[in-house]
Amino acid sequence: xxxxxxxxxxxxxxxxxxxxxxxxxxxxxxxxxxxxxxxxxxxxxxxxxxxxxxxxxxxxxxxxxxxxxxxxxxxxxxxxxxxxxxxxxxxxxxxxxxxxxxxxxxxxxxxxxxxxxxxxxxxxxxxxxxxxxxxxxxxxxxxxxxxxxxxxxxxxxxxxxxxxxxxxxxxxxxxxxxxxxxxxxxxxxxxxxxxxxxxxxxxxxxxxxxxxxxxxxxxxxxxxxxxxxxxxxxxxxxxxxxxxxxxxxxxxxxxxxxxxxxxxxxxxxxxxxxxxxxxxxxxxxxxxxxxxxxxxxxxxxxxxxxxxxxxxxxxxxxxxxxxxxxxxxxxxxxxxxxxxxxxxxxxxxxxxxxxxxxxxxxxxxxxxxxxxxxxxxxxxxxxxxxxxxxxxxxxxxxxxxxxxxxxxxx
Length: 410
Ligand code: HEM
Prior knowledge:
With 410 residues, this protein is α+β, with helices and mostly antiparallel strands. Helices cover 54% and strands 8% of the residues.
């Protein structure tokens, strides 16, 4: 496994997918886990009821971590749960997080995009006109939007931004440790502190909204919780926090990977500038071409055969979404960016019962951000001295995005 998932994978996973693909679309890797690279196979597994999610912690882990606010928060996130708990908790959020609520955010999102672009221009106009696209645009946009969606008051947004930064950092250190015993104690302490602070904050915000509902997601979730009446406080708090954990870095990577792909493909950049009306299709192609989430895990709940693969109960499968999106059987010339590609339907938001609940919001952010970016900063380019292939990527196998992206405008 080590041979597939190392520093080269972090930089550019696609050549590695091509190597894995040579063994077939569902291949038992060196550590015994199945590696799924085929589009149809990935789609089938994600939609099949006899594959469950992999729980974040085992029962023994949870026993060991029973006083950890972080472990409790993560364990109860519905992304990590199977039915019936998944169904119950997802229903709570989907009742509140409606297409109408997303559509109503449009003016606010556009204003946030314009404000960020104004700030970038004001800050760097007099200097060399270069800025870090990730830190100054792709990172703040989704978190401000999530704060707006949830109904976090403006005065709390600085703190909210900090928690969001911290939770992702500590999640990497804690969740991906090889065993509970190997979690660095200082990382666990920090994770617990962040989780504790966020939980206290949402507990307080929910109590305010219970007394005086507003037109925001927390109020709508409180209402849905009251009518469902089957939710513990821990579950409610996890449902709030998952919106940040699942919605932030992912959307940041869509923006970063999208603009990076465009700058590397000047004729596609020119095409999009000339035809902003094809932005919706361009977003699907960005999602396909360099997927913000590269993989997810499933566990077989019953024995099954997929092509020539005999899968046993308890087997783990790594669904390589990024590989499925580059399956040459499904996408002609998969390694080429083509924003006019037909019938894209990438697996970047997953499929089946765990299909991303925030997909309409992420798409809307992209559809507002890209045209505005290309309009306000029409000569956007890599900053002087940047060698695109040498830029650093976040050291995370699942979430694929650039650490920094220095750009310049004229
Ligand atoms: C481009 C941005 C995004 C990408 C690529 C993305 C990707 C994904 C993927 C692949 C899954 C399914 C994982 C699996 O099946 O194991 C998922 C689930 C989820 N996403 Fe997103 N996501 C994005 C944005 C968002 C946003 C903006 C939010 C909320 C504000 C969000 C909230 C969620 C939640 C709550 C789930 C769990 C759904 C469930 O388990 O039923 N995501 N996302």
